[in-house]
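Reopening: C-alpha cells for the flavin-adenine dinucleotide complex, inputs below.
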Amino acid sequence: LKVLDKGEVKLLDRMGGDGSVIAAARVSNGVDYESASKGTAKDQGLINFLIKNRHGSPFEHAAFQFYIKTPMFVRSQWHRHRMASYNEISGRYVEWGGTDAPLEFYIPEQWRVPAATNKQGSVNPSEDNPAWNPMLNMMLELWSKTAGETYADLIELGVAKEMARMVLPVNLYTQFYMTVNARALMNFLNLRAAEDAQWEIRQFALTMRDMLKDAMPMTYSAWERNDFIVP
Ligand SMILES: Cc1cc2nc3c(=O)[nH]c(=O)nc-3n(C[C@H](O)[C@H](O)[C@H](O)COP(=O)(O)OP(=O)(O)OC[C@H]3O[C@@H](n4cnc5c(N)ncnc54)[C@H](O)[C@@H]3O)c2cc1C
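Re-run output (same inputs, fresh job):
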C-alpha cells in the first residue's frame, strides 16, 4: 500500500493469528491446539479478557513480516522500537541513484508549523497562504537535487559509497524489513498511530493498524474496545 508520496508498506508474510493467541492462552489449562477454540463468542471473550487485563504474552505467538519504504527521518523513529527484527538496505553496498537503489526524496503535501502546546509537535498553518506549500517544496526539491548531484560527484571522484552518503538529507527514502510479533506491533501502533506521533510515521502506523485488523479481527476488536492499550 502506498504511504506518503513515494512510500510503501507491504505485509509480506504472517505466522498465526487469533487462533494462535487462543491456543497459547488455553494451554495453561492443558487444552491441546486442535480443541483450543470454544466458538466465536467464547474465543472473543477470552481475547477481550487478555487485552483488558494486559496478559500480553499469548499475542507473541502471531507474527508479521513487513516491507517498508520510508524516509530516513521516519526510519530513525521507527527503529527505536526494539521488540522487532530489522534488515535495511545498506548505503555502504548500494549506490543511491544506481540500479539497486532509487534516489528518491520525500516531498510533503503540507508544510506544518510548530504546535503551541506540544514542543515536539506541529500543526497545519492557521492562515491559508497559497504560496506556502509550493515555495517550501521548491526549496526542498532544490536542496534534494543538489544533494543528489553532490553525492554523484563524490562517487565520480572515487569516494567510497559509505562516505559519499554523508551529503544525503534525511528525506531520502530507505527500505527495510520488519518482523514483529502482534504484542510488540500493538505497542508500536499504540505509540505511532497516536495523535502526538509525527504525522509521517502516523500514516504508516494507521495503514498497518488496518492490516492488523484484517489479519486478527478478534484481537483488533478487543484492542479497539480497550482504547488501543498496550497488552
Ligand atoms: C511521540 C513520541 C516522542 C518520542 N520522543 C523521543 C525523544 O525525544 N527522544 C528519544 O530518544 N526517543 C523518543 N521517542 C522514542 C521512545 O522513547 C521509545 O524509544 C520508542 O517509542 C519505542 O518504544 P518502546 O520502548 O515501548 O518499544 P520497544 O523498544 O519495541 O519495546 C517494547 C517494550 O519492551 C520493553 N522493553 C524494551 N526494551 C527494554 C529495556 N531495555 N528495558 C526494559 N524494558 C524494555 C518495554 O516494556 C517496552 O515498552 C518518542 C516516541 C514517541 C511515540
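The chain has eight helices and seven strands. The chain has a mean pLDDT of 96. Marking as resolved unless the reporter disagrees.
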